[in-house]
Design brief:
It is a single chain. This protein is about 15% helix and about 35% strand. By secondary structure, the protein is an alpha/beta fold. It has one domain: Roll (2,3-Dihydroxybiphenyl 1,2-Dioxygenase, domain 1), CATH 3.10.180.10. A four-stranded mixed beta sheet has the order 1-4-3-2, covered by helices on one side.
Length: about 120
């Protein structure tokens, strides 16, 4: 089993889409006709959904108002993602785990906390 999709709620869908398009390696972006939701399809097929705040999906579902999410990266990709955050002007915190693995923590414009982590949960 793997995570197929997750959705965050944002105040400015176009601003958030521009940010995450630059930050996340992806295959494509799927937009709806009303510009209420977009899906960034990551290289592994996971959909990272960005919904306009207040948008309601199937069964009246809502996106997360505050969410922590982490993307696993290879140790050799760490500096690449650190540079992406720097290039975007995003403040971040570096954390080294007791097992030597590393994480980059950041917040987006809507307060969602993202993380790029070299650790593997297995």
């Amino acid at each position: 089993m793997r995570m197929l999709e997750m959705h965050i709620g944002v105040s400015d869908i176009n601003k958030s889409l521009a940010f995450y398009r630059q930050l996340l390696p992806h295959k494509r972006v799927i937009e709806d006709d009303e510009n209420k939701q977009v899906f960034i399809v990551l290289e592994d097929g996971t959909a990272f959904g960005i919904w306009e705040a207040g948008y309601r999906g199937v069964l009246n579902g809502l996106p997360a108002k505050h969410l922590h999410f982490a993307f696993q990266i290879k140790p050799e990709e760490y500096d690449t993602f650190k540079q992406k955050l720097e290039d975007l002007g995003v403040e971040f915190l570096e954390h080294k785990w007791t097992d030597g693995e590393r994480s980059l923590y950041f917040f987006d414009a809507d307060g969602h906390q993202g993380e790029f982590m070299t650790k593997e949960w297995s």
